[in-house]
């Protein structure tokens, strides 16, 4: 308010001064010359242009799988960018693809978008709800050009769900959660296979040339940077497919990792090496085309690694798909010449929802007062080392996940049904309820064998009936000491907080598969299939026509009787 008052005062003073000079000039020619000389004096420095925003999202990268976390996989580019920027070492995402991406692009928890269960499947008539304002939409309002390259995975069953309809000027990438890195084909089930590479709203058949996706996406990023005017602000969202399964990489990247006996780990290492090189090429392009000095580069993984697919989260517990730290604590950093403090480690609490308000504020955009966000503007926390405004994180509440057999309201002190899978962080405390999922610690030596093995894993055998866990994450980031029995009052406080969050939840969106999603009905490519204007034909008044239509219908048994549009969840 004080700054606003000073600016307002300065504007009024400027107006009065200009008015006085103008009036004086009108009555005295000599004064007019003096005025001209004053106006030719040193000009005020123009406001710096909004920064270019580059958000790079890796897929399934484990917490340990970066050089500066002690990995045997070399990542010189990531290490250098992080060392010269700010490492985020208390940074959280969601345990799977769709949830992290939806929260990044909306700034809202899963319980507030209806996407709190699992991921969006290729055959589901589901997508990020259309009434949610997205980050690229807000950045476009602020004058940005918005481009997305890579994996979408936020639904596509109708055209309105596509990236170009959700705020991106251009899109080049895949719609599904995974697929072949070279052919860009994906089979969801037998006889349900299709091509999954898009250029804006159409299948990019012209790019069906066997190019490895990490390199192909990097090439497209370079083309965008080469053709865009660096004086106009740019938002570039690069969502790489790597290092998600299937485990594939160009042959040359395997050479340096022959010493890794575990084949999945070796393939994963090759994929990560290629990704690291790709990010180096993106950084070089930012410098070559004049963006770098006014750019903010944010790097993040979308969830923890999957040990069975080569990823490693050591020393954290658990894996992708779980709410243990190994599933949700991510590799992340910010690199930018615009950072006030560089070469630092930020241990303040930050969540993936925070990027939405942070980037809009950096872009000098506007957030409507009635917008209900779960994210916070954390730029001063990152750039200046200030305290984070965030005190808690709702990791999730999933009411339809497999219920814990021994969970009950009684175990939750009458405050919460502990059969429900949920997790919450408040200050130093973290509470989990329900079925926690895969909970082993997987040390690096687990990958020393030629085949997949859990011999070295630290397995956990729980006391029968346990459905509540409490940890002090600050003191025990590896979740080794359960404190739920020692601090029942803390458990009650966090259960009450869960209950409060649950009152704001919207119904879960997880519709059954729609057979019309089959790529065979869409020219062999995955893509939108739901048409709003599809209506049943009115019966003909002419009896002959009616009989003829009946005969035609008999010859076309593939009309899939009973699949009315009203049976499917809307967008």
* Secondary-structure element pattern, one letter each: HHEHEEHHEEEEEEHEHEHEEEHHEEEEHH
Radius of gyration: 27 Å
What oligomeric state is this? single chain
Number of helices: 12
Category from helices, strands and their pairing: alpha/beta
Helix content: 25-40%
Describe this structure in words.
Keywords: Calcium, Glycoprotein, Hydrolase, Metal-binding, Signal. The chain is of the alpha/beta class and 571 residues long. The protein is 26% helix and 14% strand. The chain has twelve helices and 18 strands. The strands form four sheets. Strands 9-8-5-4-10-1-11-12-2-13 form a ten-stranded mixed beta sheet, with helices on both faces. A four-stranded antiparallel beta sheet has the order 15-16-17-18, with helices on one face. α1 runs antiparallel to α2 and α6 runs parallel beside α7. It is globular, with a radius of gyration of 27 Å.
